[in-house]
Amino acid sequence: MSEDKFDVIIVGAGLAGCISAYLLAKAGLETLVIERGNFPGSKNVTGGRLYAHSIEKIFPNFAEEAPVERCIVHEKVSFMDGSSSVTLDYASPEAADLGSRSYAVLRSKFDQWLAEQAESEGASIVPGVHVDDLIVRDGKVCGVIAGGEEMEADVVLLADGVNSMLGQKLGMVTGVNAHNTGVGVKEVIELSRQQINDRFGCMDNEGAAWLFVGSPSDGQMGGGFLYTNEDSVSLGLVFGLHNIDKVSKSIPQMMEDFKNHPTVKPLIAGGKTVEYSAHVVPEGGYDMVPKMVGDGVLIAGDAAGLCLNIGFTIRGMDLAIASGEAAANAIIKAKEAGDFSEAGLASYKTTLDNSFVMKDLQLYKKVPGFLDNPRMFNQYPTMMTGIMKDLYTMNGTSAPLRKIVMPHLKQAGFMNLIKDGFKGATAL
Amino acid sequence: MSEKVNVDVKLGINKFFVDEGNPHIELVENPDPAEFAKLEAACPAGLYKRDENGNIHFDSAGCLECGTCRILCGDTIIKKWHYPQGTFGIEFRYG
Fold it and tell me: How wide is the angle at C-alpha A300 spanned by C-alphas A228 and A142, nearest 5°?
């Protein structure tokens, strides 16, 4: 028996859920957020970098108040074999335009802040409760069942994360499979603020984002990452799950070897690991986006597969925020019209289709297929370190430059380079 | 370079509230070895283990709740997978 009916019940107090709750409560809708963790953020993991543009629209100058770690001013990409690396390094002062910035974040802190903003507008957030099922009548979602209790609402927003058990139960989310997902593992390693400034060449509040292509993911699709926090670094790697039967070592072993790689080891020397985490990452791009609207139900954030990995940037949180906003606006519209059917909520999908979210996913639709090529993670990084090694090694033998470079290109395969170069040019 | 990883030490740093006697993941009896091998390689918490005698071991305490095993083997050797009940399981202090 339900006691009273909410306007909206949101499952999951992550970014999509909390943003939506904030906007819905602000518009006067009675909003309940149910979170299975002991507090918002306690089950959430990011690599972690947040591109600010979508949250900046909702909370102008949010970084002044929100617990962000450091503003990213250094971009690095390293191509690695087992012991060497070649690095591209781009440094630039923090952007004057606040919406063009990005920040390292830690979700346990950040999501709590966001949930507080929603609460201050009047949203109810109930942590420590797992939603077991949905109430569905005649194909319409009418509420949730949690802890043996039924709670009803006009609309349920599923912001329950990449595994979206509820979206799968409804038959809306169908793309969560090994082909479309990777697993990320991460260590948060404590260092002093000064050590981070010195090692990554930045001032207080400024930091680096660093991706590592090649050996970290055992030469398969994936890669290592490092983000600088205020007084720690987030170091980890992501591995595409469909290649799990091709590995030479376990994922935890990949992480250990990555930490001990000569390029990485000095960056974390003397640091203390304070947390070891893991999370699945939706990597299928456009092709894994589910049916996002049904009668009385919407799906947002990771649950909707909204993540975009194009090799040199990886985004999910800015898409989650934009989807939470679009969901809130669609629900407000449905409330005004008194129509919570699929048609009444359809503006959610059209708003997303017309926003950067679906436009970018569509634009980079071919990238997951392009990246899923072991040459990108094995032959090419090895080719690059090989060329560099021969260029910079002086041992008394004379050879013209072309004779140094050619064998490495030949080993990777001229045809492969042309083919992959062409594919990359069309996918990106 | 390759030092053997000790995942248990890493898990020891984390904060867990284990729901004793109420595992949230269960395997079928006599799981297919090829399927089990995938989980041995993939599980970030190293919870799927095989000892020197080839016997397999699994304990869901220490689970990081990523969902990898469900994605890989939810249709094969995993009999039951759900998140721990509210308040239980991993609590990320950094995330």
Answer: 145
Q: Could A278 and B85 be called an inter-chain contact, meaning their C-beta atoms sit closer than 8 Å?
A: no
**Domain limits of chain A?**
5-69+105-176+284-353, 181-282, 370-427
- Interface contact B85-A255, CB threshold 8 A: no
Cα A324 to Cα A355: distance, rounded to the nearest angstrom? 13
List pLDDT tens digits, range B50-87. 999 999 999 999 999 999 999 999 999 999 999 999 99
CB contact under 8 A, B65 and A43: yes
The CATH code belonging to domain A5-69+105-176+284-353 is 3.50.50.60
DSSP assignment of B35-75 equals: HHHHHHHH-TT--EEE-TTS-EEE--TT-----HHHHHHTT
pLDDT tens figures, A345-382: 999 999 999 999 999 999 999 998 899 999 999 999 99
Contacts of A216 in chain B (CB under 8 A): none
> What are the contacts of A313-319 at 24+ separation with CB within 8 A?
A314/A47, A314/A49, A314/A211, A314/A225, A314/A238, A315/A51, A316/A46, A316/A281, A316/A282, A317/A15, A317/A46, A317/A49, A317/A50, A317/A51, A317/A105, A318/A50, A318/A51, A318/A52, A318/A53, A318/A54, A318/A55, A319/A54, A319/A357
Report pTM.
Answer: 0.96
**CATH entry 3.30.70.20 includes domain B7-91:** yes
